[in-house]
Amino acid sequence: MTTTTVPDIRTHFAEIIADIAATAVQRETDRGLPYEAVRCLRDAGFGALRVPREYGGWGVSLEELFRLLIELGAADSNLPQLLRGHIAFVETQRALPDSPQRRDWFARIVSNEILFGNAQAELGESSTNATTITERDGRLFVTGRKFYSTGTLYADWIWSGGVWDGQAVAFAVNATALGVTRIDDWDGFGQKLTGSGTTIYEDVEIDPAHVLPWTDADGHRSLAYTQGMYQLILLSALAGIARRTLTDAVDFVRPRTRTFGIPGQTSPRDEPLVQRVVGKLGGIAFSTEATALEAVRRLEQADLTRAEAADEDEHYYTALVAVFEAQHAIIEQVLHGTGLLFEVGGASAVSQQKQLDRLWRNARTIASHNPAAYREQSVGAFHLNGTLPKSQLHLARNEKTG
Question: Cβ of 271: how many Cβ atoms within 10 Å?
Answer without folding.
Answer: 18
